[in-house]
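Appendix B, Record 12. Input sequence as logged:
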Amino acid sequence: MEPQSPNQTTPENFLEEDVHIENRELRFNVREIFSNLWNLDWSKVSWGFVIFCVFLHICFPYGVYLALFSAQWKTLGFALMLLVMGELGVTMGVHRLWAHCSFKATFPLRAVLVLFQTISLQSHIYEWTINHRVHHKYCETDADPHNAKRGLFFSHMGWLMYEKHPEFISKMHCIDMKDIENDCLVMWQKKHYLSLALLVSFIIPTLVPWLCWGEHLLNAVMVPVFLRCIVLYHITWSVNSLAHWIGGKPYEKNIYPSQNAVVAFFTLGEGWHNYHHVFPWDYKTSEFGGFTNINFTTLIIKLCSKVGLAYDLKTVAPEVIEKRARRTGDGTYKGPSK
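Logged structural output:
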C-alpha cells in the first residue's frame, strides 16, 4: 500500500453520492444565481473584500487598455516579472514548501519565497497554509474553505466573499501548525503582513517604473499593481475551481480534483490536480516536471536543488503511482512517465 500523507485526500473522505460525480453539470443558471442572492444572509458577506474585488475588476479593462496602448515596454516587462514572482511565491513557496512540506529550503531561499508570496497579495503564509491543509484533509465537505460542491463561482472566488462555514472553523483548530509556528520568517511576515504587503505589492511596484524610466504615474499604478494583481488572483483561483471541475482523473476517479493542462500552464504547474490530491507530498505536484510537461515550478525547484538552496525533495516511486492509478483511476492512465 502506498504511504499516506496526513493531509492526503482518499476516497473514504467522500460520501456515497460522490461516486457518480461525473454526472455534474458545469452550467451558468441566471435564475439560480438570483435565487441564491435573494436567499443570501447578507450579514455574513465580507464586504471589505467584495469592495476591493469589485474595484479591481472595474480597473481591469482600463488596465488592459493602458497596457496595450500607453504603457512602456519596460513597464509591461516589470509587471510580468512581478506576476511570475508572485506566482512562484504561491506555487513553490506557500503551497509546495510550507503547506505540504514537500521539500526543504535554506534560509536565503525561504526569505526570497516569503518576499514573493507577499507580492502575490494572497494573505500571509500562515493563513494560506492552514486554509490549504484543511482543504486537503476535508476536501469537498462543509469544512473545505472552497468546497467545489457549492458551485464554480464559490470555489473560484465566492468563498473569499463570505463568512467561513462553522465546520471549517471547527476543523481548522485540529490542524497541526507547529512547523509553521516554528518558522521565524513566516511568523515575522504574519506579524508585519499589512505593512509588508503595502510596501512590496503597491508602493514599490508603483515607484519603480515612475522613477526609474519615467513611466506615467497612472500607468505605473494601473499595470504593475492593479492589473497584475487581478490577473494573478484569477490564475490562482482557477486551481480551486476549474481544476476541481474539468479534466481527467487517471489516479483517483472518485474525487473532484482533475488533471487540467490549461490551468497547469497558467499556474506554472499546479493544474495536475488529480495527482496532487492523491500524492500531496510530492514536490512536483505531478507525475511530471519541467518545460515539456507544463510544470515550470518543478523545474525551478530542481535548479535550486542543484545549487544547494533546496533539499530533501519528496516524491513518489513510479511503481506506486502506477499501482494506484490502475486500482482507482478512471482508465486514462498511460503508464509511468519516462
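Strands lie at 104-105, 310-311.
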